[in-house]
TrEMBL record:
Name used for this protein in its record: Water stress and hypersensitive response domain-containing protein
Single GO BP term: defense response to other organism
Membrane topology: Single-pass membrane protein
Domain of life according to the entry: Eukaryota
GO cellular component, one term: membrane
InterPro entries: LEA_2 (IPR004864), NDR1-like (IPR044839), WHy-dom (IPR013990)
Gene source species: Lactuca sativa
High-level lineage: Eukaryota, Viridiplantae, Streptophyta, Embryophyta, Tracheophyta
Domain Water stress and hypersensitive response: 37-153
Length: 180
């Protein structure tokens, strides 16, 4: 004989309903938008000058759950050559929110020296195209239940190389959610 408990049945039904609702809700890709580039220091390494900059990035979490992510590095490219990296510190973001991240980066001018004709043309046009990639891994939590995720972001940014103003950009992100 099986003992029937309404409490256990209601808890089981609520858990099943919450799980089904969570599984049917399609997670959305976060969005990233480079707001500004600010030079913080120059390091003279004759005949070149390396720069330390801070990238200000606007990040939107469109999902109904908070996210927690681990630290990583963003790679920044010019004409296919690695120009530098930006550190993304570990952090978190509340559900359906926006925040600004300030990412310190070091740019190696030696890589620009490999493309002198293109750099001069970019300076004349006042448009320099930079590409960046980053993989961000973390956990999205609903109560005690956490799902690992990975977001791959590709950015194509046009900046004014004289004033470092962002002229145009295109960002693509792909979200992978691991259910196991």
């Amino acid at each position: 004989m099986v003992n029937w408990s309404w409490t256990s049945a209601l808890i089981g039904a609520a858990t099943a309903t919450a799980t089904a609702a969570l599984m049917s809700a399609k997670p959305k890709d976060p969005t990233f938008h480079l707001v500004s580039i600010n030079i913080t220091s120059f390091k003279l390494s004759l005949p070149l000058v390396d720069a330390e900059v801070v990238l200000t990035v606007h990040v939107t979490n469109p999902n109904a759950v908070p996210i927690h992510y681990s630290s990583t590095e963003m790679s920044i490219f010019y004409a296919g050559s690695l120009l530098g990296t930006a550190k993304v510190s570990a952090g978190s973001q509340p559900p359906k929110s926006c925040q600004l991240l300030h990412l310190p980066a070091r740019l190696n001018s030696m890589e620009l020296a490999h493309h002198p004709v293109q750099v001069l043309a970019d300076l004349r046009r006042r448009e320099m195209v930079l590409d960046a990639t980053v993989d961000i891994e973390g956990v999205a939590r609903v109560g005690w239940w956490g799902h690992r995720f990975k977001v791959h972001v590709d950015s194509h940014v046009t900046v004014d190389p004289v004033y470092l103003d962002v002229v145009d950009q295109e960002n693509k992100s792909d979200l992978d959610l691991f259910v196991a």
